[in-house]
Write a structure and sequence with these properties.
The complex is a heterodimer. Chain A contains six helices and eleven strands. By secondary structure, chain A is α+β, with helices and mostly antiparallel strands. Chain A starts with a helix and ends with a helix. Chain B is globular and about 60 Å long. The chains are: A alpha+beta, B mainly alpha.
């Protein structure tokens, strides 16, 4: 019977505090949503005699490029997927190797996720043919089609970079390697909306991207 | 502690071997230059990146070839640590002979067996040879 008298002391206050803290943090995590980037407009429409407001978000334009296997990749190939995208070229001597190292970490983190993909655009399509991209992908340790390296018309690639993903990608004879481009990784949701941009040359940013992908998957 | 203990210590500190000081200067400068000009591809630890960019292994490269490759770049197939690589390395025309001596000092001291600095004359001489 003596044992019973000990019972109230078995769960002291100091035990509850961390639990509460965890619960609060858990809720915060749950509610955290990634911002939606780009310009938006609202449209009003009449539904059942009442005025409703709809928000139209900036979305990624339609595209058609060719991947490292010579197959066509379009926006439809990425339907139902969250994807990360970037711009690079295989002979780039400056930030690309850093970006590819970080993207490889992202790739390793998403390999078991069917609804996540990576799309790397070359900004030097003249040199970076599907064959060159395939060799590059292989040497980086990338197989299959979860991470696609795409090439296509230079104008289309620069246009989608500037207008859809909102990053710099163009030729510039004064830049090392001949091209000027952003080192950003862009996170796109299943509705083709930009949900995050990250400095692809920094490990901490790539780790944040990996966490944000999980947040985005929970939201969908 | 007595004076006899402190005095030799002071002398040692104030009279460091000038060769050693120079080696340390080259090493530090070389480390910075390596990080700026080489580490993007070869990585800060010199281990390379997957099968894309080879590791830097001083024991496999003569200093003469090292200077030349750093300055003029490289293309065609090479074998490093038993693995084949075939991706061209850009030239670094802006690096001075002194820069290259510093980078070589860093690489051969940090990852090789060297414990002294690479002399500027040696870089200068072999670079005039390798341009031919």
């Amino acid at each position: 019977m003596k044992i019973r008298t000990d019972k109230p002391g078995r769960f002291p206050v100091r035990f509850y505090f961390p639990v509460m803290l965890l619960a609060v943090l858990g809720c915060m995590q749950e509610n955290k949503k990634l911002p939606i980037y780009g310009e938006r407009e609202t449209v009003e429409k009449i539904v059942d005699g009442r005025t409703e407001t709809d928000t139209i978000y900036h979305t990624i334009q339609d595209f058609a490029f060719v991947n490292q296997y010579g197959d066509t990749v379009t926006n439809r190939s990425l339907d139902g997927k969250v994807y990360v995208t970037d711009f690079f070229f295989t002979t780039c001597p400056t930030i690309c190797p850093l970006m590819k190292k970080q993207m490889k970490m992202v790739y390793d983190a998403i390999r078991d996720k069917d609804d996540v993909a990576i799309l790397s655009h070359t900004i030097d399509p003249r040199y970076d043919t599907p064959e060159v991209l395939r060799k590059f992908a292989g040497d980086l340790g990338v197989e299959g089609t979860q991470w696609q390296f795409v090439t296509g018309s230079k104008e289309k690639i620069y246009e989608i970079g500037q207008e859809s993903y909102m990053v710099t990608a163009r030729e510039d004879s004064t830049a090392a390697g001949g091209y000027l481009h952003s080192g950003a990784f862009i996170l796109v949701d299943k509705h083709r909306r930009v949900r995050g941009t990250y400095d692809g040359t920094k490990e901490a940013e790539a780790k944040k991207l990996i966490r944000d992908i999980d947040l985005l998957l929970k939201e969908e | 502690m007595t004076l006899s203990g402190i005095l030799p210590g002071c002398i040692l500190l104030s009279c460091q071997d000038p060769e050693q000081i120079k080696r340390d200067q080259y090493f530090t400068e070389g480390n910075q230059l390596y990080l700026t000009h080489c580490a993007n591809c070869h990585q800060p630890d010199g281990k390379g990146l997957a099968d894309l960019y080879p590791p830097v292994i001083p024991s496999e490269v003569s200093k003469e070839r090292f200077f030349c490759v750093v300055k003029n770049g490289l293309s065609g197939e090479i074998e490093v640590n038993g693995k084949k690589y075939n991706r061209s390395m850009p030239a670094n025309p802006k690096l001075t002979d002194l820069d290259i001596a510093a980078i070589a000092t860093y690489v051969y001291n940090a990852w090789g067996e060297d414990s002294t600095y690479v002399r500027l004359d040696r870089v200068r001489e072999s670079l005039t040879e390798c341009g031919k």
